[in-house]
């Protein structure tokens, strides 16, 4: 089960009242929005007006996987990316080795060895990975799961009040924050 949390939530603990198994959402629709940002704004407005937001669920409908192509891949680009990524990891390992090396003086040899080793390993692994694709995927991309619309559902006991509040929000100018 995937649990999405905020930076201020309890981390890995199961939120009280949430089902442990994937379960379809329940409630009555009180709003429908074209973007997730608009649905969040609606729920934030409900919270600002002391509405019982624990009865609210945002549901993405008509899910799509969108893959945005970032650019063409070439051997040069693949090797450069592998070298840079390996360098960062090598610097990290070299820094840790230098920190825990015995002796009163700081030595830069472990950092340099880590950097060079990281670059070499990064190059090798990137080359093997790219060669194994045999030209079937010569582009870089980023994937994102998006919905065609976002419905805000509310449990029946508070749905009418929620619908009334969201109707007031809809009548306000979109740039208004109060």
What does this entry look like structurally?
By secondary structure, this protein is of the alpha+beta class. It is 44% helix and 22% strand. It is built from four helices and three strands, in the order E-H-E-H-H-E-H. It has a three-stranded antiparallel β-sheet. Helix 2 runs antiparallel to helix 3. About 4% of the residues have low confidence. Keywords: Membrane, Transmembrane, Transmembrane helix. This is General stress protein 17M-like domain-containing protein.
Task: Give the key terms.
about 45% helix; 3 strands; alpha+beta; about 180 residues; GSP17M-like_dom; transmembrane; General stress protein 17M-like domain-containing protein
Sequence of secondary-structure elements: EHEHHEH
Q: Indicate the percent of residues in helices.
A: 40-55%
Biggest sheet strand order reads 1-3-2
- Strand count: 3
Residue stretches low in confidence (pLDDT < 50, at least 5 long) are: 7-13
For the residues shown, what is the average pLDDT? 86
Q: State the separation between the terminal residues, measured CA to CA.
A: 37 Å
How much beta, percentage-wise?
A: 15-25%
> What does the main sheet amount to?
3 strands, antiparallel
Protein structure class: alpha+beta
Shape: elongated
> Rg from C-alpha positions?
25 Å
- Count the DSSP helices: 4
Secondary-structure blueprint of this entry?
Elements (H helix, E strand, L loop, with lengths): L27 E6 L2 H13 L7 E17 L2 H26 L8 H24 L6 E16 L1 H16 L7
Antiparallel strand pairs: 1-3, 2-3
Protein name: General stress protein 17M-like domain-containing protein
Pfam families: YflT
Keywords: Membrane, Transmembrane, Transmembrane helix
């Amino acid at each position: 089960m995937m649990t999405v949390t905020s930076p201020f939530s309890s981390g890995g603990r199961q939120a009280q009242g949430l089902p442990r198994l994937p379960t379809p959402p329940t409630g009555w629709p009180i709003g429908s929005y074209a973007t997730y940002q608009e649905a969040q704004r609606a729920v934030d407005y409900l919270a600002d007006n002391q509405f019982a937001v624990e009865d609210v669920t945002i549901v993405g409908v008509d899910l799509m996987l969108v893959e945005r192509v970032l650019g063409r891949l070439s051997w040069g680009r693949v090797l450069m990316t592998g070298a840079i990524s390996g360098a960062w990891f090598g610097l990290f390992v070299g820094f840790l080795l230098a920190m825990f090396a015995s002796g009163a003086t700081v030595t830069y040899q472990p950092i340099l060895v880590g950097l060079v080793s990281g670059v070499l390993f990064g190059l090798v692994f990137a080359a093997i990975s790219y060669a194994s694709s045999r030209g079937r995927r010569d582009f870089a991309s980023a994937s994102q799961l998006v919905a065609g619309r976002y419905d805000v559902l509310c449990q029946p006991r508070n749905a009418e009040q929620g619908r009334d509040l969201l109707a007031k929000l809809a009548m306000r100018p979109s740039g208004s924050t109060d």
